[in-house]
Amino acid sequence: ADLTGRWSPLLEFTLGTQYGVYQPVSLAELTLGRWALDGVAVSRNEALAAYLESEAAVLESLSEEHDGTSPLDPEFDPGRAGELDTRWGRRIEVLRAAPEMAELERGFYWMVGVSDDDPWVGSPEALFEHTEASLALMESVGATVLRESAGKLDEIASGARLRLRVALVVGIVVGMLGLGVLGWWMRARNRLEAHLRVAAEYDALTGVESRFALYFHEESRLARSSSRGAALLLTDMDDFKSINDRWGHAVGDAALVKFAEACRAVIGPKDRVARIGGDEFVIMLHDRTAPAKEAAAVAERLHALLAAPIVVGEVSVHLRATVGIAVAEGPAHLDELLLQADTALLDAKKNRRSRHAIFNRNHRRNLIREIDGALADGHIEAVFQPIVRSDTHELSGAELLARWTREDGSQVPLANLIEAMVSMGASGIWTERMLLAAARVIPFLPNKNVRFWLNVAMPDLVGPGARVLIDTVSAGPVPAQRLGIEITERIPPSDLIEARSTLMSLRATGVEIALDDVGSDTVPLRHMTDLPLDRVKIDGSLVRDADTSMQNRALLRAIVNGAADLELEIVAEEVETDGEAAVLKYLGVQHLQGYRTGAPVTLDTFISAARRDRSPEPAESSTH
Fold first, then answer.
1. Are 569 and 596 in contact (CB under 8 A)?
2. What is the pLDDT of residues 514-525, one digit of tens each?
């Protein structure tokens, strides 16, 4: 392309001389070629303009002196070339006499291969000789240009090789740095994974295993249990709440640590201890020939170890425990054993404190009978726990809970209450009562966007229970747009499709769906994508100490980011301190629930607070 651009004028001149001796390209074209070879930056239009400004005068001079005939005229006869030899010589003189045409003249002579002092008087054959000389010059110059181009190509190739070597060296260096960064990242990732694994599997305060670890290890172990028996001991501290309230959290934490140490001291190498929440601990015994008898012996040893008071600073605290025992003679389910042990624990607390009880079928029958009487007498009541926005602290909802206080002052945990009602087939009756209670509150709420949330057990989502739930909600006194359903337990894969269909039917009416206890072992994270959800509720075990525990914050951040990616709203449960509330707001949690924002309160208390347009004050006691 470079050669074509520089030599095209000379090629045009040569062709012109071959096909019309006295019709070469104009002098401006010749000069343009000379200027191009000299490296002068000039355009074709500029050269033509320079020529046209002068050519008129030159031609006029020639015409005057030679009868108005010009060899450049289109009608000029080439046969008269011999007669015009002197005219060409005269034209050269004229060109020499015109200073402004000096460059044009030099370009012309250079292009045809003659010197400035050669008298150009000759025949067309002489012009052909000059043309051949021009072609020879073209070949010579072209060869020179090609040699120069080859040299430049060598230079380019050498430069390319140098750049390639530099790029190779830089690539090696960058690659080594990349491998170093990758290695550092993998080591950091492994450390983080190990850190998160420890945070997930062990309780940060007591050092015993967590609820997650208990489910992770024991579900599969119990399912493939051999003929040798196993026993589950569920124990908690009596009056732990009064210890916290009287002496503060520092003494309460020390009591929990001491309690965990006592639990570990009474087990064997094949057994395990886990803290599953608050002051509740589980002791798992395996490979026992007489599991009931051996579990009772472990409970007695635990009582003996706790007999001595603990001293924290100047405070002396006596610890007492109650133990419920469930026995498995073969394969079993962890959830079932926990419910059985919880039922036995309630029986032990009811009859005598600081002792233990072993579950039997009479315990459940007795509990169901008691619940039936309490429902009939109105002793089981609905309580409301407020849910507020983390940014404005405005009331955004309330969870409806069941509370049953026995005559002896003991309270039945909500999980046992729900499980017993489902077994009785009374969950629909209780849902109706909860909706009636919510309907009484609605007229007193200044915020029309407050939504009431009901806990729903898995049996209410499949089979006949699902139809009862849908009909109860559809015909209830509370608009669907003011209701929400909380799923409180895992849904087996075999029931997942039917449960999803039930939830979609409820959601189509305006009811919102929440997945409760996210982050605990009872609810798998995969349910966040398996089910049609509007929000998730983060389990209190992760919320606890969120302002001081780096492990809890790491897990919270992961759940919050996942929920945000799925476009789900987020509620944090069991928020108790200002520090926890501040961290949760910073992480992106939109709603807060817990004693920090308001404890569960009765219907009348909640209505009074709604009238005053503020969240209720904490209650004396409640069921979570």
1. no
2. 999 898 767 888
pLDDT at residue 534 in the model: 97
Task: Round to whole Å and give the CA distance between 84 and 123.
Answer: 9
- pLDDT tens across 537-562, in order? 999 888 988 888 888 888 899 999 99
Taking each helix axis from N to C end, the angle separating 44-65 and 27-37, rounded to the nearest 10 degrees, works out to 140
Q: In terms of DSSP bridges, do strands 591-593 and 569-572 run parallel, antiparallel, or are they unpaired?
A: parallel
Spatial distance between the Cα atoms of 70 and 76, rounded to a whole number of angstroms: 7
Burial 191-202 (b: 16+ CB within 10 A, else e): eeeeeeeebbbb
Burial class (CB in 10 A: 0-12, 13-18, 19+), 392: exposed
Sequence letter at residue 305? L
The answer to whether 64 touches 91, Cβ cutoff 8 Å, is no
Q: What angle do CA 25, 31, 36 make, to 5 degrees?
A: 115
Cα–Cα distance between 620 and 624 in angstroms, integer? 13
Whether the per-residue pLDDT at 459 is higher than 90: the answer is no
584: pLDDT strictly greater than 60:
yes
Query: Which DSSP string corresponds to 2-56?
Result: HHHHHHHHHHHHHHHHHH-TT-PPPHHHHHHHHHHHTT----HHHHHHHHHHHHH
Q: What is the DSSP string of 513-548?
A: EEEEEETBSSS-TTHHHHS--SEEEE-HHHHTTTTT
What is the rounded CA–CA span in Å between residue 544 and residue 393?
A: 20
The top-scoring range by mean pLDDT among 170-174, 433-437, 585-589 is 585-589
Helix (H, G, I), strand (E, B) or coil at 1: coil
Q: What is the pLDDT of residue 448?
A: 84
Domains of the chain: 2-146 (no CATH), 202-359 (3.30.70.270), 381-617 (3.20.20.450)
Q: Coil, helix or strand for 134?
A: helix
Q: Which of 483, 601, 589, 493 is nearest to 539 (CA)?
A: 589
**pLDDT band (50, 70, 90) for residue 56:** low
Closest CA to 516 of 470, 574, 430, 443: 574
What are 121-148's pLDDT values in tens digits? 344 445 445 545 555 555 555 555 556 5
